[in-house]
Amino acid sequence: MNDDDKQRDLVARLRAADPAGDVEARAGFADEVVARMTGSEAEPMAGSAPAADLAQARASRRPRWLPFVAVAASIAIVGGAGYGIGATIGGPMSLADGAAPPITLQSNGGPESVTQGGIEPAVGSGAATDQKMSPLTYPYGSGRNAFSASSLGTQTGTAQSYAYDPRSASSSDKVTALAAALGIGLPVELRDGRWVAGPQDGSAPSLSVSLDGMLSFYFQNPEVNPWQCEGDQVCEPTSEPPSEDAAIGALRALLVAAGRDPATFEFTSQVWEGSPTRAAEAKPVIDGQQLDQGWSLEMAEDGVVSANGALADVVALGMYPVVSEQEGFERLSDPRFSGAPTVLPMALRDQALTTEEWVAPMEPPATPVAGTSVSWPVNKVEIVSAQLGLASQWQPDGSVLVVPAYAFTDAEGGTWSVLAVEESMLDFRAF
After folding, report:
1. What is the mean pLDDT of residues 390-412?
2. Residues 6+ apart with CB under 8 A from 308
């Protein structure tokens, strides 16, 4: 296979993993993106958030466009068929030979996904705002939306819901087994609202398990961190990252140690150019769809640098009534639901790769004149398909439900999410 064929194969794999893969982009789009990402003219995206100390040094070595290449090059290792419970309605929306991508609802009061540790999200991977970003305001701020759709289903129904069961996993034995798999010996203690193992001052390998609704854990090992040298100084590592098989194998071993079945997860692996570490991620699969809460780790040549995940099992909660595709679509314009964009349309993903360097102005903008129109940009969003899936929802008491949600795909390849549960099962009271 020559270089051109390899580049086209890379794009084909990326398109296959796109929920809107059947939406055709303009002629030449794919080749242009590959050329910009892999050619000599490729540059990092501007506007990354500031970080501190070691994290800042590491971020400076990771060009922001590289996750696009990493996603295209990642390999999904598909286990079993998940739990195989529940019902779905709507059009096809699946990864290549795997589960449908996760659905993330608008910020719902809970902590951010526990999969942050080793893998940096690509642009548009999370529901950062409650409105779709317009080309004029991207990457900051938000626009206003006028939604339209046709031929959506009007049939209501029911779908299986789930919940995380943290208390069944909150035990010394469970945490001890995970700590041992991470190379941390006894003791394991319950203090200050969490299970802990190892020193918590960052001087040695340590594990912390929060008593939250998912029993989320975080592990770090400064002794094998290739970015950290003597005296907490940031250094320039020279080692090579481990193989994909090694990183995914380490993550599978952690799942087994925690009593989880790797066959109910899908695995991916990423590596950034010039990085001495490799990231791996495992997303649980239920009813043929990945959940938006998963496990991840970052691995160096000498071992696992960091890892995080959710120790709580997911248990069936019963059937919930769900609204039709049409009513779910109408919720996109209902301020009570504020449909969230979870994947940028192709036009904005293209813009994300070609953002020009900011040039400092030499003078302020001109003074508006009488009769100047008030700028009030509105995005016209045409919904072309709907898929019923699952999304996590944090409750006021800290527990976590996994409930029916719709993912709508628009004509530009963007994806929108909204809660699908019928109003009779919703508690609108403020807390």
Report:
1. 94
2. 114, 115, 116, 117, 118, 216, 217, 218, 219, 295, 296, 297
pLDDT one-digit tens code per residue, 229-256: 766 666 777 789 999 999 999 999 999 9
Which helix (H) or strand (E) element contains residue 404? Answer: strand 400-410
Taking only the tens place, the pLDDT of each residue in 100-135 is 889 988 644 444 333 322 222 222 223 323 333 333
CA separation for the pair 388, 328 (Å, rounded): 10
Enumerate long-range contacts of 176-184, CB under 8 Å, 24 or more apart: 177/257, 177/258, 177/259, 178/207, 178/209, 178/217, 178/254, 178/257, 178/258, 178/311, 179/207, 180/257, 181/253, 181/254, 181/257, 181/258, 182/207, 182/219, 182/221, 182/254, 182/304, 182/307, 183/221, 183/303
Q: Six-digit token pair at 343?
A: 């994947």
Distance CA 431, CA 386 (A): 31
Short-list 311, 340, 337, CA closest to 176: 311
Q: Compute and round to an integer the Cα radius of gyration of the chain.
A: 23
pLDDT value for 294? 93
Rounded distance, CA 27 to CA 2, Å? 22
Q: What DSSP element (H or E) covers 69?
A: helix 66-73
10 Å CB burial of residue 311 (0-12, 13-18, 19+) is buried
Strands 313-322 and 303-310, by their bridges, are unpaired
Residues 6+ apart with CB under 8 A from 100: 19, 93, 94, 288, 289, 290, 387, 389, 407
For residue 308, give both structure tokens: 């995080």
